[in-house]
Amino acid sequence: MKLFDSELKIMDVIWKEGDCTAKHIAEVLTASEGWNKNTTYTLIKRCIKKEAIERIEPNFVCHALISKEEVQQVETNELVDKVYDGSVDKLFAALLGRKTLTGKQIERLKQIAGEMEGD
Questions:
Q1: At a CB cut-off of 8 Å and minimum separation 6, what does 65 contact?
Q2: Which of 49-58, 59-68, 77-86 has the lowest mean pLDDT?
Q3: b vs e for 39-57, b when ≥16 Cβ sit within 10 Å of the residue's Cβ?
Q4: Euclidean distance between CA atoms 45 and 109, whole angstroms
Q5: 13, 17, 2: which is closest to 52 by C-alpha?
Q6: How high is the pLDDT of residue 118?
Q7: Are 27 and 51 in contact (CB under 8 A)?
Q8: How confident is the model at residue 119 (pLDDT cuts 50, 70, 90)?
Q9: DSSP labels for 60-118?
């Protein structure tokens, strides 16, 4: 399932806050993104059509049918395939080579790699 950035903003509210009404999602995204209620409702309906969200009545409560981790996995796979020719090691090397990573972040990446070697 491919979710667009605007749809991910809808999902992010639900992932952070749990099941909530469409009205609440609209209020949050009006405050953070400046969206009007109709824009938010249209995007929620798109997410429902894609089966990322389930609508529960009464009160148009939105429930996430997919986890943030599932979406992250799909997006990561797409990034690896599209930008790094399907090579996870190229992506990992790019991450390790970034000048913006802190020493702590680099050590965490090395720890993850070490844990994967043990599997």
A1: 51, 52, 53, 54
A2: 77-86
A3: ebbebbebbeeeebbeeee
A4: 38
A5: 2
A6: 64
A7: no
A8: low
A9: TEEEESS-HHHHHHHHHHHHHHHHSTT-HHHHHHHHHH-TT--HHHHHHHHHHHHHHHH
